[in-house]
Design goal:
With 227 residues, the chain is an alpha/beta fold. The protein contains 7 helices and 10 strands. The chain starts with 6 loop residues before the first helix and ends with a strand. Its main location: cytoplasm.
Amino acid sequence: MVNVLKQALATKLDVDLMSAKCGFALEQLMELAGFSVAQAISKVYSFETNPSILLCVGPGNNGGDGLVAARHLYHFGYKPTLYYPKQPDKNHYQNLLKQCQNLGIELHSDFKKALGSSDLVVDALFGFGFKPPIREPFFEVLSALSKSNKPIISVDVPSGWDVDNGPLSTNCIRPEMLVSLSIPKPCSSFFSGKYHYLGGRFIPEFLAKEYNLDIPKYPGSDQCVLI
C-alpha cells in the first residue's frame, strides 16, 4: 500500500529536493514529472484511437508539468493542443511554451470549442499548492469539465479538490486517470476513476526514508507505475 503526503509535507519535500541536500533544479523536476504524465497517458490511451488531447494549463508548476507533457505527447504521436489563459512571464514558463509552439502545438483562446474537438483532456491547472476559492477563468473551465463526458487525466491533484480533503463540492471534476507525482496526496483516497499512476522517479532513497515514504518499484525503465 502506497502512503500519502499531506500538503505541508509535500511542499517541504519539494524544497528539500531543490536544496543543496538533493541538488535538483525546478526545471529538472518539471521535465521528469511532465514526461511521466505523458508516458502514463500513452500506456492507457493510444494515439490511434485518442489522437486529440487538450491540455488545460495553469500558471504554476502544475501547468509547467502540463506544458512538458504536451511536448512529449506530440513526439509520441498525439495531436496535443493547449488552453493556457494565464501565462506567467517567468522565463522558464515562456521557454516551455515556446518549445510547444515550435512544434506547431495550437494555443486555444476558445475553451468550449477546444473541449468539443478533443478526445481527452489533461487537467494541469492547480497542483498541491492550491487554496480555494477558484477564480475565473478557471471556475468556468472546471464547471465545463465537471459536466463533460470526455475522459480527464489530472496531474497530481484533480483541480478544484482540497489537497488533503478531496472534492470541495458534488460538482467537482471526476478524472478517469490520476497521475500522482512523487507520492500520492491524501485527496487521492477520494479518486474513483479507472487508472491511478505514480510518476516522478527521482526521490533518492535516503529522502524516502526520512519522509517514511513507501514508494513502489518502477518497472524497467518506466517513469510511471500503476498503483
